[in-house]
Task: structure prediction
Amino acid sequence: MSEVLLQAEQVSVRFGGLTAVDAVDCTLRAGELVGIIGPNGAGKTTFFNAISGVQPPTSGRLLVAGTDLTGSAPHHFAAHGIARTFQTPRVFPDMSVRDNVRFGMQFAGRGRRAPAGLASEGEILAMLGLDALAHEDAGAITPSQQRLLEIGMALGTRPRVLLLDEVAAGLTEAEVDAMARRIRRLRDEWQLTVVWIEHAVGTLLRYVERVLVLNQGRKIADGTPAEVINDAQVIEAYLGDELAEGIDA
Ligand SMILES: Nc1ncnc2c1ncn2[C@@H]1O[C@H](COP(=O)(O)OP(=O)(O)OP(=O)(O)O)[C@@H](O)[C@H]1O
Result:
């Protein structure tokens, strides 16, 4: 089996009386392409926040390539190879597209050894189809290009694990498929581990090999798309809606 890059052990995040993430265990290995699905408010983004250092867990442990980073700041997670995007793209509008990717490189520290292929901002922009826009201000490109740029900023940190939070939100169906193919290429060509939260369940299930399902903060399923869509708890959590659309698709 390939190397374990991230291990979440019984991770919980509580906000006052609300348990947003409830004792979630999760092991991510090198080269996996994993989807996370779950109804609104299931705890998906909060789980990402926990495993990227944005929201320290209330309890549980986070090991990144064997190092305990529980409670560490996001830049420590970045320096250990964890990168993420946010639901709302957070690009620097007055900086060029290329400088946004460079910023990602500085965030993780200059000393970080780049995984093979992820050498320069030029290669990252080419992979994302943004090379022709390298000198444009990030604020002047379209929202869907800004979503790609946010992936570029995350890739600039030279990650081993890339966490994508609804990067296809608001895109047309054709754009969602193009995004999914690009994400698959990132994994294939740069041997990244990719974890992808998306409400477009149908697309997600077609492209990932493994799916985690969260419901009310708990992990209720973890398996192949075929296993997950036949799981009684998953069907109940979705009450047929989004999952049915996913299966139809
Ligand atoms: N900073 C916070 N303070 C208080 N409650 C929060 C905070 N962040 C999230 N929550 C609550 O935690 C629960 C999980 O939210 P989260 O955003 O992680 O769900 P999600 O599965 O990503 O939802 P969606 O699919 O709608 O994005 C929700 O009830 C949400 O209101």
